Amino acid sequence: MNLRQQAILQLVNDRQRVSVSELAQTTGVSEVTIRQDLNLLEKQGLLTRIHGSALALESDDVDIRMMTHFATKQKLANYAASLVNDGETVFIESGSSNALLAHHLAQRPGITLVTVSGYIARQLKDSACEVILLGGIYQKKSDSMVGPLTQLCLRHVHFSKAFIGIDGYQADTGFTGRDMLRADVINSVLAKGAENIILADASKFGQVHQNSLTPLSTISRVITDHRLAQDYQQQLIAQGIRLDILSE
């Protein structure tokens, strides 16, 4: 990695999202050169490219994360929505795939959505469905509610299905999350005994983060895409988890 590429990576990590044109102007090279740099950095797993911009890998901004593998996430969300029955109450956790799921369900007036995501609640303010936003400490970077008050609220609501987002999975660690407070909320959801469904594109598998989502036995189902490696498929099935893999 040369000095220009190091500067590009630092700027993207600082700003979370930077356009190709701005990177070219800042570094004093052509946009063609910037695109070549970004291709290299993406191949090294250091950032993510979308049309006209580069994204930091660890962004908590839902709008930014939604742009990564957007078409795949739309398919996952559409399939997940088909599993929800009319009149059902479901919990939807934070994250881009879950936000798309909420949008699919929003047009069905008989459904009640429980969430900790301020982002999702705002997206559904004009929707037909009933929305319950749980209270707690407002975590600005993820636009979601966390902390002991959120966990207390969870004790007093009931739902038949819970759709959970993850940040990583390995066979020896199970499912993991980047943020400790959000992981605590998810673990409280898992403990309620609903049908717990992981909704995540295959890019999350193979990553490991410090906060475990446990126990693994509480996970009923995983919905992901065709890019999921065969060894991960076998591991999930061996752990008694139903696996729904969507084709291209």
Structure, explained:
It is built from ten helices and 15 strands. By secondary structure, it is of the alpha/beta class. A seven-stranded parallel β-sheet has the order 6-5-4-9-12-14-15, sandwiched between helices. Strand 7 and strand 8 (144-146) form a beta hairpin. It is globular.
Q: Layout of helices and strands, plus pairs?
A:
Blueprint: H1 3-15, E1 17-19, H2 20-27, H3 31-43, E2 48-50, E3 53-55, H4 62-66, H5 70-82, E4 89-92, H6 96-105, E5 112-115, H7 118-123, E6 130-133, E7 137-139, E8 144-146, H8 148-155, E9 161-164, E10 168-170, E11 174-177, H9 180-190, E12 195-199, E13 211-212, E14 219-225, H10 230-238, E15 242-246
Parallel strand pairs: 4-5, 4-9, 5-6, 9-12, 12-14, 14-15
Antiparallel strand pairs: 1-3, 2-3, 7-8, 10-11, 11-13
Helix pairs in contact: 2-3, 5-6
Task: Describe the structure using short key phrases.
three-stranded antiparallel β-sheet; DeoR_HTH; 248 residues; alpha/beta; transcription; seven-stranded parallel β-sheet; 10 helices
Entry summary:
39% of the residues lie in helices and 23% in strands. It is of the alpha/beta class.
Low-pLDDT runs of 5+ residues are: none
The SSE string, one letter per element, is HEHHEEHHEHEHEEEHEEEHEEEHE
For the biggest β-sheet, the strand order reads: 6-5-4-9-12-14-15
Got a strand count?
15
Strand content: 15-25%
Helix content: 25-40%
Radius of gyration (Å):
19 Å
Average of pLDDT? 90
- Largest sheet descriptor: 7 strands, parallel
Q: What is the CA–CA distance across the termini? A: 34 Å
Assembly of the depicted chains: single chain
> What structural category do the secondary elements indicate?
alpha/beta
Outline type: globular
Number of helices, where a helix is a run of at least 4 consecutive DSSP H or I residues: 10
